[in-house]
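Good morning N.,

You mentioned wanting to compare the apo and holo forms, so I went ahead and generated the holo version with zinc ion. This is what I fed in:
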Amino acid sequence: MQHPYPWQETTWQALQQRIAAGRLPHALLLSGAAGLGKLDFAHLLARSLLCDSPEQGLPCGRCRGCQLFTAGTHPDFQAVRPEEGKEITIGQIRDLLGWQALTPQYGRARVVIIEPADRMNLNAANALLKTLEEPGRDALLLLVTARPAALLPTIRSRCQQLSFAAQNDAATRGWLIGQMGDAAQAELALAICGGAPLRAVALAASGGMEQRARLFGEFEALIGGQQEPIALAAQWLELPLQETLATLHGWHVDMARLKAGAATVRLDNPDLRRRLQALCEQVDLAQLLQRQGQLLEAMRLARGHPNVQLLLEEMLLGWSGMGATVAQRAAPTR
Ligand SMILES: [Zn+2]
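and this is what came out, ligand included:
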């Protein structure tokens, strides 16, 4: 039997109470950072509603409803996703509306998951609004997104919100150690990933921890003026860009914290404290904040930038020898 993740347990129980009281709304907006298992939660909820004999609110895993769901052929379930690199289109939403107008084949419920809901284009979002205004009977719409602010306010206001947050409690840590084996590595991966346990597991499994260590060494060399920025840009382009930019951004946030705060300030990269401290002593706070803003802009642009290489080269050129320049400026000239 599948369970919600430990950090979702409270949210799950609260929802179960609403279901038992017959107060489940017709549309839920599941939001929160990536790596918190929102989509798994949505699937579990859908399965439990379509299960013929749920056990304490959880899908039994054996009945015909559960089997059809697992096979991906349950007639009362639809998942709407964008095609690779595209938006969710009005055509997809119209198909959904046609399907939703039918009565449930099994007489229980009809469940739709739209994920990521923020990828609906404006026409699709407007078409969806209609179904939110006139929901079908026994229909449940689950919108899943890490960027709820990117949805139309009218869509947000017609959904009940379920927000997922990072937890660093004993149950979550226990689960993560079970997945990763090593407690210290698990703790570090969780910190690096902003408390999102599934991202931590994925990072460790994909060799991301080793890659991050290598990247940091190259970043130090770049700031010290010992690394050629154009060559480095070409090298970094081989890596997943959004994650690389997010990693760089995380280091900047920590450097700004170190620069502004006490030596004991909490960091997202606790293992790099000493080296980040050494780096941030070479640059001033204004530069750091400017780079941080640039990184955020780059992350936004990189979603649809036609020349990612140029973008990365420009940024690395800006960083190149940044430490050396400031050190020179600070050194008295004779
Ligand atoms: Zn079942």
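The mean pLDDT is 88.

Happy to go through it together on a call whenever suits you.

Best,
F.
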